[in-house]
Amino acid sequence: MIQNRLYFLISLFISVLISGCNSKTEVDDSLIFRLNRYDNISSLDPAFARTQANNWVCNLMYNSLVKLDDSLQIVPDIAKSWTISEDAKIYTFTLRNDVYFHKNQIFGEDSTRTVKASDFEYSFQRLIEPEVGGAGSWVLNNVENFKAINDSVFQINLKEAFPPFLGLLSMKYCSVVPKEMFEKGQEEFRKHPIGTGPFQFKLWEDNIKLVFRKNPLYFEKDEEGNALPYLEAVAMTFLPEKHSEFLQLIQGNVDMMADLDPSYKNEILTATGELNPKYKHIIDLHKYDYLSTVYLCFYLDGNDAVDERLRKAINYGIDKQKMVKYMMNGVANVAEGGFIPKGLPGHNPEAGYTYQPQKARALIADYIEENEKLPVIQLTTVQEYADICEYIQAQLAKVGLTLSINVVPGPTMRDGKATGKFAFFRANWGADYPDAENFLSLYYSKNFAPEGPNYSHYNNEKFDELYLNSFKITDEKKREIIYAEMDKLMMEAAPVVPLFYDQTSIFLQKNVRNFHMSPVKLLDLTRVYKTK
């Protein structure tokens, strides 16, 4: 097969890279981690780390001031410590002195240099420059100014207090890059990007392959003092067909596969969501909670806006337990709480609706008594989720509601959501940063789409007041209580129908060890290794 030949050639190429001038071109396969992305990488520049694919590669190459651990706690990265002023507006970071940029001739013949506070000053300034056109400038919208106090101290002043700010800084947009690389413009960095991360750029053939080598100067050590990363190289291919990626996994040509696709879901999983026994001797299945809520959204401002009683009836009328079990092979958490997903502080398990068809019928009867007849409600979705929407259609028919399904292309869906063309549509929201404010911002009245993410146009003065007050509270526990209250208040009006809180399914070859996937779905291979 052509695909198998491609993997053979890439493996041989990596062997030559690792061997260098050594006449022996074979390399221990356990030192190379192979994976595929069916969606292409559009940029290796952290300023453009907007898509999951771009985020994955940027997380291998770059570091920021802070980062997230697997428990969503903010931990040091290049900043070894920091202080926050009493008014929560001034953040002062003290940097490590042992972080080096990847070796490159821009620093001298095959040389490097340490990261300084002025590098963060340059990187942040570059992030907000209109001519760069980066996707992450919004992260610094609330920043008044930033400056290098000296080589090891970097300070950021906010316009207004914003407790989730450290979470924003953990995003790959805020990674540090060397200013020397941009003295001749942006093009040189695009050809050969330089960061500080555990892996350094080696080769990229657009839509074919991407190769990283171990960074021998990486600053992190394991608990025994051993240098990280353990792997020697990472090789990524870009087969666009998801079923082909599945075949490559089964044949042992890739070490991991992320997520499920309908083309092979029922082949690789049992009806209860376990790994098919016939593959257990080849691969392992790992499930990780992912901070993402999949939901149905009502547009409340249109002439055909759905009545609140019917919105609540839809919430009560869907058996989400069966939906997750039978439609998704159990790979998700049922959303019977509010909009904030399970696992994120502020999640309120009592804010949502459970399956109670008798309540749905009572609400529908009340509506009919006043309006004589029921409308046909149209649910808009993309093809990928048509089967779930058809399940919802069948469920609501049992309580007396007629739902029609409108399947549209992805671009049409995105435009319709933003401009209020659809009265009822399927949507999802994944965390950009690990704070419930990220989810509650969808219901703040000043964030109406298309300028903001409030697709429902939900508007409640009490909610807005709580939302703004939460910025003044630095105590995390107190803020969580307010978040839970806001979530419950919003759900009482039922502008949305939370369906499930996402999970990520990761399939790994049996010799892969120490792999973890964070709840914000960043690929981290720093501590991963393979047995022989």
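Next protein, fold it too.
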Amino acid sequence: MMSCCGGNMAAECAVGEGSLLREEELLRSGKKLDNGRVQYVFSVPNVSCGKCISTVEKALSAVDDVQDQRVNLTLRRVSFTLPEAVSPVDALDEMQRIGYPATPFDFSDEADQEIRRENSRMLRALAVAGFAAGNIMLLSVSVWSGADGPTRDLFHLLSAMIAIPTVAYSGQIFFRNAWAAVRGGHLNMDVPISLAIILATGMSVYESLNSGTEAYFDAAVTLLFFLLIGRYLDFRMRDRARNAVLSLSKMAARGATLVENGATRYIPADEIEPGMTLRIAAGERMPVDAVVSSGSSDLDRSLVTGESAPVHVGKGSFIEAGTLNLTGPLDVRAEQDASHSFLANVMEMLAAAEKGRGSYVRLADRMAQLYAPAVHIMAALAFVGWMIFTGGDWHTSLYTAIAVLIITCPCALGLAVPVVHVIGAARLFEAGILMKDGSALERLAEADTAVFDKTGTLTTGTPEVSSSSIDSSMPEASIAVALANRSIHPASRAIAQWFKGVAEAEIDHIVEVPGSGVEARWNGKTVRLGRAAWVAEIAEGDSGKVKGDAGVAFAIEKRPCAGFTIAETLREDAASAVAMLSREGLSPQLLSGDAEKPVRTIAE
């Protein structure tokens, strides 16, 4: 079976008897759900339009036990659920029968390379069609200007020599898709496009060889060129959405250190099973959802909550996959395998963007289902009608039928819709916003409330020292900056930036205590920078006397504590943006996972 869109992935994928897919590959494509069913996800490279979506979903709905079947056009994949005891082979056999072979879905480098190859193929096809269309137009000018007889025939033949290889090469994207649909016993949007281009080119060749007065090579190649523009823009928009999922997948750890019978060894993430004990060093990301069995550390959970402030964890704490371990080693017990982790679920949510279809998208899907048969019926009626009207003149009748196919080619759906989406997505991307679903633009027009995140949205996302009881000219400043430079904690980085330019004091015996701070020796005395209560243990007085709302403190043994106020900084345009939305009638809200006090301060 040939691929629909320029042969854009492994095309033949037999299932069932004589399967090319191993049973374990099929099982890896499944994810157990709480309701006793299994959700399967497969790559379907042949889907390319709304008609393809409806064809695959309708075919799967007829397979016993299949439920929740959905096709994602962005990632060209299909998902459906089955009872745990039922194999997906029957569903895959049905997809193979209708011309949409499926393979296990993954984000591998090989898949990335195939996407890049498809991008190159489409660009080459577009370039060839554009170059040919320009040259054929130049040759046509002479015919339009009155060239006749042998001169006209020469220009027609020259146009044919350019048009025939161009249509054969650049038209493959549409021809293969149309052929796969016909082989599967149904129609899609590319069938009338292919018929129009082939018939127009074929009739033009016939006219050129028989000294005819009319040839339409320019129309056929130019139509192909403009439709390729739409197809390429649509491909780029969907590839951008796919890249959002890929970039998130690259944040996942590739493996972890397994602790087993007192020995340690590295294992890939896909071999991690629930119950295994893993050792996560500082600076490593959590490969799976897990619970801390020993150790303590600070974590960067910004991937989960969006908040930059580190979170202290200890024995019994639950940690999501993708979380970054900052300060200390942890032994954790795996709670899920990698395919069922928090990060995998987030990727699934991103990839499911197209499942929520807007009203206009649903209307376009319905039109696509009716469009292809309606166009062929109209063209056939035009041919029959002109045969009757002209008394059997097949030549004129066929030209009329071709004209109907060309005029009714889905230029609006094939070019205008992708152009609108790409322009809108590009403008949003320039503003730092990724549009994963075109229907979001429709829903945005109906919005009445603007909900803001805090960290990184209204604020710069980087904590800063707003005040300190230590002046940069004091000896304590050089000690504090020396301690701060020994830690990767965000608060330490903020303090180091606050004292930028201050020379470091000489310290030794440096220890970073997870969840507390940094400790060292200076001139024979213990010095600490970190959590106020911990620092106060070596200081004169108690932690209640520490200045600084954030509780970040510094102390030299047997001397009073000094404090730092760590705060987030509003973006310069935050207040004006909120005011503008208020003037537009939107109600601004702030929703944050941070503590109430800093959130209320920013809100005010």
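About the second fold: Residues 109-144 form the longest helix (36 residues).
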